[in-house]
Amino acid sequence: MPLGENIFGTTTLGDVQKTLTEVLTTTATSLASVLDVQTFKEAITTVMTSEASETDKQTFYETILSTIQSSSSVSDISAFAENLLTIITSDISVEDMIGETEILRTTAQVEATVTSPMVYYKKGILNEVDFSQQLKDIYWGRVDPSDLTLEISDADGTFSALITAGEEFRNRGMKFRIYEPLETPQVKFLVYGKVIDYSLSPGKISFTLALQNLEEQDAQIPKKLYETTDWTETPTNIINPAQDLGKPYNIVFGHAKKVPLICVHSNYTSDYYDFIIGYGTIHSNHNNKATTVNIYRNKVLVPSNEYYIHGGEATIQYTGSSFGLTAGNPNPYYLTINGQPVYFAFIRFLKEQIDFSGNNPYELTADLWGLKLSGSTVERNFIRCIQYLLSNTAWGLGLTVETAYFDAVAPLMADRYCDGFIGGSQFNAMDIIEELLFACQGRLFYTADGKIGIDVEVYDPKVKGLFGWKDGKEENIISIDEYRKTAVREAIKAFALQYGYNAWEGSYIYQNRRSVMDFGEEQVMESRFIRDHTTADKITCFHKNRMTYGDTRLSITVGMDGRTHEIGDIPKIVIPDWSINSAFNIRKLSRTANTFKWDLTSYDAAMFTYIVGDIPDDSNADDLPDFSNTAPTAPTSLQKTGSGTDQASDGSTIAYFNVSAIAALATNKVTLVKFGYKKTGESFYTYVDGTQSGTNWYAKINGLIPGLYYDLIAVAYNAFDLPSIGNPTLTSQLAPGDTTAPAQPTGLSATQGIGKITLSWTANTEKDLNHYDVYRDGIKIFETRDTKYPDTNLSYGVSYTYYIKAVDNTGNPSPASSSVAQSPRQTTTPDIGDGAVETPKIKDQAVTIPVDAYTAGRVDISSGYWVTVQQCSITSTGAPIHITACLNVWNTTANPSGITAQILRGSTPVYIVYNAFDIAAGHQDSMSFAVRDTPGAGSFTYYLQVYAVTTMAVFNRSILLLEAKK
């Protein structure tokens, strides 16, 4: 019967003995004696006819057959038969006999690189070796390995012959495969070490090894890196070498975000450019890329019409014509592994992906639905991702897995989603797998036939075994080694999981946090393969519960009753002295030949009860793009739907516009539309927030000045506060005004002044009053917000008539006020009376004539005549006289005028300036000049005169100054 086939219950004893004989006679080694055969048959007969379970019978049978088949000499078989005979003839139970037989089978397989190729030696271990203290429990950390000594049978002189031939063993790497026989299912460990010492004695050789690795999972999973993969086969149509060689190709699981794309081919003639996504067939393809693919160029979303995506099938699926691809043609990108092509998913762009400088390639990343694995859609189950990462020969580790175990536990993790990718840098395979195991509460083990299995930590209501200490019933606990609560230095106050890895920033977007105890440290874990909020919350809840309910720890030693227990089993522990009568979870175990030490934690069904925690309330589904750098679509249909006027809080009249626009309900969701306004001709808008109703947005733009023109704009914003571009505008929109004019101003009066008239009136009470217009002789001469106005530079003896109007913000004028008439007065008293100054105190005897004394009134100038506009007198002792003149002239006529100015001493011209002014109609000009005159001693009068080409007037507010001093 083949190993692994259940022979008991369906096969007769004669058939079993016949099969055993065939095995013994076909082995490479001749049998030592018929006695050995008889011993084996007797042992099997004893077990088959006992009350042992079928499982124990099967295990016993396979133990004998596998031991015989692995023996390499007659002496090995004879030694095994002799030991077996001792067991079956001793006074022990069948159950103990089965256990002792399994111990006999413990072997070590030594692989020493003493020759090339590697030579394998199979020898029995003679000394008792306890590997259990070196084993790693994946939940409670690792134990540093120590040196280990193995004594191996060398009866046939295999090793001694090698050493005699000069082979040096020290510092050689060796690997031992150890079968732990008391494990169900049996677990096989690989022990790696380097020989630091050895010795020979008759019939055996002793090795002392410096252990390098005794970890169960590391032994199962080789130290393989996902390293750089360059093309071993170059497709013939690649023109230029890949720009990104040196980066690993991606392995994409679930809904992966921001996966880096790797340029592999540029065709400048046909203008298309290919980028590799990664290994295998992914769910995303050209037909469904609108929902399963988002491409980013320097973090900005790329329109879907710019690229085609091939999902990694063996043949091209595209049926269009614009991408240079033909459906049915072979996929050009593949590697040959183990004689089979491994195809890649790739993206083809229609334009070269370089920036405007023409030198620097854009950074391209993608959101993808990843590998289908064995299904028709993307696989997101952590168990399946681990299974294929272990077993896939192209992009995985190529190991053999027991699919039945993975099939059994995968449904238990169906509500947790694996979303991420391996790529961008190098990762150790064990680190990736441990991260996935953490997310699904799993652990790996070897089955009896050397395949990798998996189980997950879920609630199991079945208690496996009852163990008591002074309980008056079981009494099967040998010793209690420790009973305690978690120490303060080991306690976890809070557990946090960081997830939602952002490859653009190299950081995590989200954190799910749970409080555990009132004291201790915070433990923070990270996962690149978790994006779903609920998945993160369930994982955090479980680990929080395990820390909370597993706070009580117990270490005990049990006897052979614990031989079938494994890590994760739930025995019930009864210790009356300490009031313990509850289930515990085996977290760690170690074995000797007859005893088992367990490290246990308290166990409760509540550990596996999911209570919803704080989950982020974001609406961005897994397949939606990241719009943090992509502007939303601009609004459309901007229109002014109405306008009017309102009264402000101060009672003034203000105008408003009612506006609307449409913002489509796109995936780059518009969260706000703002409406802007500015006065026509200005540069900057002022914005108001719109109100949403479906795709329509509305706003009332208030506070406008009636009668002015405004420009309008609508701008959309997304959740990242990015504004749209290419936004619609409306220009030169007239703000409406009111039609009610202010009341007629009252109380207007006019007061005489020297050369001026001062007006005053009673203020209007309208809130929207803007200013007053002042009229003289029916002509508007001034605007003012005050209720007083001085009209200066008036001509003496001339009567002037005034009235005013009030004007509001809209520009509505009030009726004219009542008119008033007045004329300026002339001074009759000199500023300095006779005898006021007895002795001059002025330096250089200079005399400056006060300006007001010579401020000209309105002086009309007729064409062809000199007109004196200023004069002053001075007495000189003969020193030179310095004369300064300045004047400001306003042309009130409709014709241009040229002005000539001169200074005279009496009737003698001292200085003349021809065409000093050339003044356009309705404009003014000014000038000043200085003259030096030496008339000798005496009193002199100086005059400032002007001459006009055409009739005009000196502007009535001009300041005309003539100054003479020594």
TrEMBL record:
This is Putative structural protein. It comes from viral metagenome. Residues 627-648 have a biased composition (Polar residues). Residues 741-831 form the Fibronectin type-III domain. Transmembrane segments: none annotated. Residues 813-824 have a biased composition (Low complexity). Residues 622-648, 813-837 are annotated as: Disordered.
